[in-house]
Write a structure and sequence with these properties.
The protein is an alpha/beta fold. It contains 13 helices and nine strands. Helix 1 crosses helix 7 and helix 10 runs antiparallel to helix 11. The structure holds iron/sulfur cluster (SF4). The site of iron/sulfur cluster has 15 residues, from helix 10 and helix 12.
């Protein structure tokens, strides 16, 4: 009862509320929640799935929600299942502590719907919506070769409402506060709050809740961030050289990750480590992903040791990889690497001069985690 009881709403209520506050998914794709709800058939859906895989290594917000406020997530999932006439609620979780927390919370509840907590593998692409669905049905947790919407063909090949943990938390708060109360803070276009994971060269790493549209500089100042490039959005995000005047809002702030690189580590070495890790996470079924990411790792490794051909090849390969995989993994990786080439310009020149930057690779981005 910490959060107050969850009002019982209809599917229409949820759709109107989500539309009124412009709520978007908080997992990375930032898809409008109202559109997702509208796409579901009125006759009922197969399942409501809470995606708590959080396979992005830099993100911790979903784990925090599942371990600190599991009832908030369950309230929204259970009431949505009732409103959408779904017989199953599935909580897909990778982190053992988060799974235990949800299981313990379930013992304290008396819900009239079948709720299951299922473990998901820790691989990066295993957290993608369709990979989660594949894993939940006993298959390999990789995105299928075709792009299909879970709202059309989800769990058991039937329409399914699947969203990220924080999205459910926001729906639970929205149901309790109504659109006016929910809109008392944050942006006019997408009011409310957001969870941000802060990491890297900062004095205060962790997860914070801010109004949507908070200035990035305010967040960095609060975290005690060192000067230097900032990565927004995690391993599929983009590098920023300037943070002045930038506000945190969707879709860019969608994964809610802010990492300060600082000035004591080798930026190019950090980026190359993450690229290696991302390439190793390919599900191995689309050529442009398997071969393109491997080629990019090689390009960046050569660039790091001062080979100008590495820079040229990286630019060329970055033009070839996006839009050609069955999921967004190659696109996200290309975005991360392309913005590194643009923003880490000074560092790249130092490496191309043959002297390197003289700094060790400290693993600030956790590329080998
Ligand atoms: S693009 Fe890569 S990660 Fe995505 S499905 Fe294809 S091989 Fe797997």
């Amino acid at each position: 009862m910490t959060h107050g009881s969850q009002p019982k709403l209809t599917r229409d209520d949820y759709t109107k509320l989500a539309e009124a506050v412009g709520l978007r998914g908080r997992g990375g794709a930032a898809f409008p929640v109202a559109l997702k709800l509208q796409d579901l058939p009125a006759r009922g859906v197969e399942a409501v799935v809470v995606n708590g895989s959080e396979s992005e290594p830099l993100s911790r917000k979903d784990r925090l929600l599942l371990t600190r406020s599991p009832h908030l997530i369950l309230d929204a999932a259970v009431d949505l299942a009732r409103a959408l006439r779904a017989p199953h609620v599935l909580i897909a979780v990778h982190d053992p502590a988060a799974a235990t927390s949800v299981r313990e919370a379930l013992v304290e509840r008396d819900d009239r719907v079948a709720i299951e907590v299922r473990n998901t593998p820790g691989r990066f692409v295993a957290g993608e919506a369709r990979a989660v669905l594949s894993g939940l049905q006993g298959g390999t947790a990789v995105p299928p070769g075709r792009r299909v919407l879970p709202t059309r063909k989800g769990y058991h090949q039937r329409p399914t409402f699947l969203s990220n943990v924080e999205t459910f938390a926001q729906l639970a708060v929205l149901a309790r506060l109504g659109s006016r109360g929910f809109s008392s803070t944050g942006l006019i276009s997408e009011p409310g709050t957001q969870l941000l994971t802060i990491d890297g060269a900062v004095r205060r790493p962790g997860v914070i809740e801010t109004p949507t549209g908070v200035p990035l500089d305010t967040v960095l100042q609060y975290a005690g961030a060192e000067a230097g490039p900032v990565l927004l959005g995690g391993y599929h995000g983009r590098w920023l050289s300037e943070t002045d005047g930038l506000t945190l809002q969707r879709p860019e702030a969608s994964a809610g990750i802010v990492v300060a690189l600082g000035s004591r580590t080798c930026p190019l070495g950090e980026v190359t480590q993450v690229a290696q890790w991302l390439a190793s996470q390919s599900a191995g079924q689309c050529g442009p992903c398997v071969f393109g990411l491997a080629a990019l790792v090689d390009d960046f490794a050569r660039l790091t040791v001062g080979d100008p051909q590495g820079w040229h090849d990286a630019r060329r390969h970055l033009g070839l990889v996006p839009g050609r995989g069955a999921c967004a993994h190659p696109d996200g990786t290309a975005r991360f690497l392309m913005s590194a080439l643009e923003v880490l310009d000074d560092d790249i020149h130092r490496h191309l001069s043959g002297q390197g930057c003289g700094r060790p690779v400290l693993g600030v981005l956790g590329g080998t985690r």
